[in-house]
Design brief:
It contains 4 helices and 10 strands. By secondary structure, it is α+β, with helices and mostly antiparallel strands. The chain has 2 domains: 44 residues; 184 residues, Protein of unknown function (DUF541), domain 2 (Alpha-Beta Plaits). Strands 3-6-2-7-9 form a 5-stranded antiparallel beta sheet, with helices on one face. The chain has a 3-stranded antiparallel beta sheet with strand order 1-10-8. Helix 2 packs antiparallel against helix 3. The longest helix has 35 residues.
Length: 279
């Protein structure tokens, strides 16, 4: 009898302990769900505010890009290519004499293709003379379809880009290339060879600009800035238009190309957006 009472007491105590554990577990789950639903005054997503910043750095260009094409027409593709090779040899000699390194000369395109022209057959037109007999007209020719395409020689061309590191000599170099007989000559396109350091400097200025705006507005609103929740760099460092441009068409020397072409200044820009949590 005492044994049965003892076992019953043990079962009651175990049931009570289990009930307490279950109660604690479900209470914790309920509190967690309430917090998620902001029923206890806490928001699951913190409030944020974003600021944009702009920075720019000006620098004098240290390289100039020059571009030219050599194009020749001939009765055979071999002769057209030979004509291009002759002008190219002269042009490369000019570049070497001006101190341009082989690594700064690059062929961007080379092509050879046939040319065609369209011919129509001429139809003789009979007419009546005063005696009533037929004869052939000696007036304007009338073309009879269909016509046909016939080969009209070949064209060979080669396009070359040059990086000129001595920007003060780019005007003289372009004059010499024009005299060498290149078909098309354009440039110079002034730029900065290594922009990484300038980009980093411009980005630092943009970040400082955004931080200054954030601190000023936070003070006006009476809020505190928390941690940064996101950062975006939307910088577009496009090449700035060069100071002056020359364009030569045909194998003639540029008559008005200046000996010195002003390089001006390039502007490296950076635009960022910083998003803060606010307290």
């Amino acid at each position: 009898m005492e044994m049965q009472s003892y076992e019953k007491s043990r079962l009651v105590k175990a049931g009570f302990v289990l009930l307490v554990i279950l109660s604690v577990y479900f209470a914790a789950r309920i509190i967690s769900e309430l917090k998620k639903d902001s029923l206890l005054g806490e928001s699951a997503t913190p409030a944020t505010i974003s600021f944009s910043g702009h920075g720019e750095v000006k620098a004098t260009p240290d390289i100039a890009g020059v571009y030219f094409t050599i194009s020749k027409n001939a009765a055979t593709i071999k002769d057209a290519q030979a004509g291009v090779a002759t002008v190219e040899k002269t042009a490369l000699s000019v570049l070497k004499a001006k101190g341009v390194a082989d690594a700064d000369i690059k062929t961007t395109d080379a092509s050879s293709y046939p040319n065609y022209k369209y011919l129509n057959a001429i139809c003789p037109q009979p007419i009546l003379n005063v005696s009533g007999s037929n004869s052939v007209s000696s007036g304007s020719a009338i073309y009879c379809p269909p016509g046909k395409q016939v080969l009209d020689g070949y064209t060979a061309s080669e396009s070359i880009t040059v990086k000129v590191r001595n920007t003060d000599s780019v005007g003289d170099l372009m004059q010499a290339l024009g005299i060498a007989g290149v078909s098309n000559l354009s440039g110079p396109n002034f730029s900065i060879d290594n922009q990484d350091a300038l980009k980093a400097q411009a980005r630092k200025l943009a970040i400082d600009d955004a931080k200054t705006k954030a601190q000023a507005l936070a003070k006006d609103l009476g809020v505190s800035l928390g941690k940064i929740s996101s950062f975006n760099d939307s910088s577009n460092n496009y090449p700035v238009m060069y100071a002056e441009n020359s364009m030569v068409s045909g194998a003639v020397a540029p008559k008005a190309a200046p000996a010195v072409i002003p390089a001006g200044q390039n502007t490296i820009t950076s635009d960022v957006t910083i998003t803060y949590e606010i307290k």
